[in-house]
Amino acid sequence: MPYVNIKVTKENGGLTKEEKLTLIKGVTNLLAETLNKNPASTVVVIDEIDMDNYGLGAEQISDRRKAGK
């Protein structure tokens, strides 16, 4: 049973329900086509992380976005 965890920053209100479904279907299809995994047993979890709780290069993503990075 494949388990895929996608982590994205919650920007501009976060992902829409439709965007999440597109990710779930896309990842599931990719595993089915590439690795011959059963879509019925593929788990996809999407975690939306507040930009203050996500760091890169010793900076919070919220600050990096404000700085145009």
Concise overview:
The chain is of the alpha+beta class and 69 residues long. Helix content is 36%, strand content 26%.
Derived from helix and strand composition plus strand pairing, the structural class reads: alpha+beta
Based on DSSP secondary structure assignment, what is the total number of beta strands?
4
CATH-assigned fold name? Macrophage Migration Inhibitory Factor
Order of adjacent strands in the largest pleated sheet = 1-2
Coarse shape: elongated
Poorly predicted segments: none
Overall pLDDT level: 96
> In the CATH hierarchy, what is the superfamily?
Macrophage Migration Inhibitory Factor
CATH architecture: 2-Layer Sandwich
Pfam families: Tautomerase (PF01361)
Keywords: Isomerase
Organism: Shouchella clausii
Family: Belongs to the 4-oxalocrotonate tautomerase family.
Structure description:
The strands form two sheets. A two-stranded parallel sheet has the order 1-2. Strands 3-4 form a two-stranded antiparallel ribbon. The protein has a single domain (3-66), classed as Macrophage Migration Inhibitory Factor, CATH 3.30.429.10. The protein is an alpha+beta fold and 69 residues long. The chain is built from two helices and four strands.
